[in-house]
Amino acid sequence: MTSSGGPSQSHYQVLFQCLEAASRFVPPVQSSISGLESLREVLPAMPSPSALAETDDGPPASAQDALQLVTLARNTMSLLDESSSANPLGWETLAGITRILDDLITQLGALARHDRADLVRGLYVIIDPKVTGGRDPLDIAMASIRGGASMLQLRDKFRDKGEQLPLAQSLQKLCQESGASLIINDHADLASVVGSAGLHIGQTDLPVDQARRVLAQHQLIGRSNRELEQLTESEDMGADHVAFGAIFQTNTTGKNTGRPPRGVEQLRLAKDTAKTPLVAIGGLNAENITSVVEAGADAICLTAAVALADEPEAAATNLVKLIEEAGGKT
After folding, report:
1. Residue closest to 292 by CA, chosen among 270, 318, 309, 314
2. 138-149 pLDDT per residue, tens
3. Do residues 89 and 80 lie in contact, with contact meaning Cβ atoms separated by under 8 Å?
4. Given pLDDT bands bounded at 50, 70 and 90, which one contains residue 11?
5. Over the Cα atoms of the chain, what is R_g?
6. Which of 47, 49, 34 has its CA nearest to residue 93?
7. What is the tens place of the pLDDT at every residue in 44-88?
8. Which region, left, alpha or beta, applies to residue 122 given φ > 0 means left and ψ of -120 to 50 means alpha?
């Protein structure tokens, strides 16, 4: 977008048009976006640019669309030259709009993540380079996807992040091409760099609010939980989905806590407690997956049942079939 007014005029045009378009977003009835009201109040006081694009694509269709507009507007703010005549806004107005946009980014981000809750579903396979039966972890991932996995998680507890990056990038490309979702374990910076669907953290990892500062607003955060009260704590922190387990005995994580598995009845209580999508994890396989799905888990997270199978694709296919037969999401 260019005009005879020079770069600052062009930047103001971008800002104004983004704000005007975002202001027309209509959130769901049950969602309160106070920042939209603030934006609608300030917009009439902003001078209209001398040249505006004539095309009108209508209001943003989703919170994600509105978030993209607001984020572009926020980034454009830094390009405005306060001393230029092409910028008709004073510093007080700029500061006020900046505060509104910061609030909107937070509010629309939460709504956009809520809209993406259905990504947490079905077979969720952990890709761990230490648990492959001597095979390439990318091959395990590809087999999982061909077998119908909806989600993958990269969990690498031993290598440096620079060494993990190539695999993370390959997994992200695989998921984008297949319509699956990639979650990165532990490392918010790695999740941010590859643009994964989200991040998974444990009880002692980076707190949810601090991880959110590293991630894009639309990226999901899941958090591990063993106790029922931890589920509520995680959600209060802002976790978009919660994992509960270990449901059955497992040695795959490499953590021998000495504590008994939680079992299916505790998983049922977890489903009653959680307000966000619930991921079951720990010792899950073809022999016990039906009971876990019937207990209400939205996603079935496992490692060895696919990664150590003689034929990982066939194992994943069978697990997806069992999830479907039990009435689960796929």
Report:
1. 270
2. 999 999 999 999
3. yes
4. confident
5. 23
6. 47
7. 999 888 766 566 678 999 999 999 999 999 999 888 766 666 677
8. left
Which amino acid, one-letter code, is at 143? A
* pLDDT score of 4: 40
Q: Which residues contact 263 (CB under 8 A, 6 or more apart)?
A: 247, 248
Long-range contacts of 266-269 (CB under 8 A, 24+ apart): 266/228, 267/292, 267/295, 267/296, 267/297, 268/295, 268/296, 269/228
Query: What pTM did the predictor assign?
Result: 0.89
Q: Report how far residue 245's alpha carbon sits from residue 232's, in angstroms, rounded to the nearest whole number.
A: 15
Which residue is it, tokens 């978030």? 67
161: Cα separation from own chain's centroid: 20
b/e per residue 285-302 (b: at least 16 CB within 10 A): beeebebbbebbbbbbbb
Q: Is the per-residue pLDDT at 220 higher than 50? A: yes
Q: Which residue's entry shows tokens 């760099």?
A: 193
Q: For residue 231, what pLDDT is reported?
A: 98
